[in-house]
From TrEMBL:
<dbReference type="GO" id="GO:0005874">
    <property type="term" value="C:microtubule"/>
</dbReference>
<keyword id="KW-0963">Cytoplasm</keyword>
<feature type="domain" description="TPX2 C-terminal">
    <location>
        <begin position="4"/>
        <end position="54"/>
    </location>
</feature>
<comment type="similarity">
    <text>Belongs to the TPX2 family.</text>
</comment>
<keyword id="KW-0206">Cytoskeleton</keyword>
<protein>
    <recommendedName>
        <fullName>TPX2 C-terminal domain-containing protein</fullName>
    </recommendedName>
</protein>
<keyword id="KW-0493">Microtubule</keyword>
<dbReference type="InterPro" id="IPR027329">
    <property type="entry name" value="TPX2_C"/>
</dbReference>
<dbReference type="Pfam" id="PF06886">
    <property type="entry name" value="TPX2"/>
</dbReference>
Length: 92
């Protein structure tokens, strides 16, 4: 055995030892442990938000008519596309 081969074997053994130790540490960290119970000795007082309230809007459940929808067929698969009108308002 040459000196280079002996050195490579030593390095391989050292690398293997390091890997085994890392695996052992990771397995030790993965053991589930109980979480501490939170302290309820102080009551919780929620703070009022500084954001403005949202303004409710009624949903528009209008009926689907043939003018607003069209059927596109290609290769025996059907897909419906909604025609976008200029008068529709964007959602904020």
């Amino acid at each position: 055995m040459t000196m280079i081969e002996h050195q490579r074997q030593q390095e391989e053994k050292f690398r293997k030892l390091i890997e085994e130790e890392e695996i052992r540490m990771l397995r030790k960290e993965m053991i589930p442990r109980a979480q501490l119970m939170p302290l309820f000795d102080r009551p919780f007082f929620p703070q009022r938000s500084t954001r403005p309230l949202t303004i409710p809007r009624d949903p528009s459940f209008h009926s689907i008519n043939s003018k607003s929808w069209r059927c596109m067929s290609s290769c025996d698969s059907y897909s419906f596309q909604r025609l976008i009108h200029q008068s529709s308002k964007p959602i904020k």
